[in-house]
Protein: Lipid A export ATP-binding/permease protein
Organism: Christiangramia forsetii
Amino acid sequence: MTYFRKILQFAKPYKKFAILNIICNIFYAIFSTLSFIALIPVIQVLFDKTKRVSKEPVWDGFTGIKDYVTDYFNYEVTQRVNEDEVAALVFICGIVVVLFFLKNLAGYLSSFFLTFLRNGVLRDVRDAMYKKILELPVSYFSEKKKGDTISRITADVNEVQTSFLSILELIVREPLTILFTIIAMLVMSAELTLFVFIFLPIAGFVISVIGKQLKRQSNLAQEENGHFLSIVEETLSSLKIVKGFNAEQKFYARFQESTNRLHNILNQLINRQNLASPTSEFLGIFVIVIILWFGGNMVLVEGSLDAATFIAFLGLAYNILTPAKQISKASYSVKKGNAAAERILTVLETPSSITDAPDAIDKKDFNNEISIENINFSYEEEKVLKNFSVTVPKGQTVALVGQSGSGKSTIANLITRFYDVNDGSVKVDGTDIRNIKKKSLRNLMGLVTQDSILFNDTIRNNVALGKEDATDEEIIDALKIANAWEFVKELPAVLDTNIGDSGNKLSGGQKQRLSIARAVLKNPPVMILDEATSALDTESEKLVQKALENMMKNRTSVVIAHRLSTIQNADKIIVMQRGEIVEQGKHQELIAANGTYRKLVEMQSFE
């Protein structure tokens, strides 16, 4: 219940609905009990004439309230029986109908108010989950399955929301119904009620044994749910490769394995849960039979209990069964909800390793240089960068080249602070970026990646991502600089054309030029280009390269390059190998040095 209590903190803004729900549940429990108690004077008056009251009772104070209420009710019924038996029957039926109407009205209103609480918590937990996903560093998700995260924000949150209904019933309605019923039973016959309680702990123990493994099985089910969602996500994002390699059957088999495991877990889980209701009902009926035997003796043999009270007592005893059954079902639901809450809180309580320092500054401009000083960095065990240092002066273009795995893209990740260095520092104008607010640091930078990351939205909204108040003229100017306006203006809805999932309605070159337009419109002083042309054909590369040259004018640029033809005009070229600098200088200087850079150029010239 620890995790569930933490989730309940999300209910605080909706406490007025919880209070109204509790009030309605109190009335539900009262009317539920009264509807059975009302049978006693009715039976006494109709079938035992000695209980008829012809004289109106007198109020004697609260000490005699029970006798006063009973006698007054008997008096009213007696008056009607004396006048007209049919009228008396209508009066009695009317009372029963009113009590049951009030009981069900209170039940409806309690559910009505609970709806706002449950759905409010559902929304707020989802919002908190999504906000946390945005706050967590990139490194967190490199180790996680996307499907598992999706499962937590959908299925697990739904499970918690469903459990809210159960826990409020568990805490308020059903226990109050049982409490009021037991009070009424004790007033009728303390001896018979105490006899009933001998058997209730036995029933409770049997039910608790059934539910013992529910939380563990719920965890397994939710983990498997995340696994099969991961398979779906991978299939959708890699459909061309799956089909191109005729791997449909292989992926289908993987999916079937997952759904079969989930099928077996859910069968065990639901069957165990379904066992709760019939078990609690059978045990309840068993208790009722015991009452019949023991109470029957009290009525027929001992004469210590009258028949009308015993019949009402039986009704009240049965009235305990339904809430007891609901409590047993709710307790299972809460166990499942607690397992889901644990998975949600695992995400919500994950500390972010990339946070703003308490005294972090809000940096508005870039004046001098970016300096990377003696940094070491590793993703896991093996060092990706070793004692690496470089300076990028304002207005200059510095290119990083080298074979795959040499650590080029890691530099981009560290400058933008997607990761923090293990040793050393990255500084902007002499200030360590860990002492600059993340938002203001990233406002100084534009990013164009190797993979064109676009969204299933319009061209306007994709390009204006970094500048929401951009005018159409500004967007068009950015598209022109990126050599993208020539194809955008031919589209059916121009700027309002939807480009599909990940921009798949466009070619690779068109997508990359939109990515560049997005960076141009943001107009940052520092531009980071992470292999922005490596995935393009020759014609697209020329258009994109021209767009990049337009964009880099009068800007500070860090270019991570695979195709060396794109960085020949860079002010400085850094040649990297296994996380270390092996050469640096301008293009012609490095060619003349006849070292690693020249070998890379010659290798590419034969490609």
Remarks:
- The two ends are 63 Å apart (CA to CA).
- The CA atoms of residues 80 and 86 lie 9 Å apart.
- The mean pLDDT is 76.
- Strands lie at 369-378, 383-393, 397-402, 423-428, 431-432, 445-448, 526-530, 556-560, 572-577, 580-585.
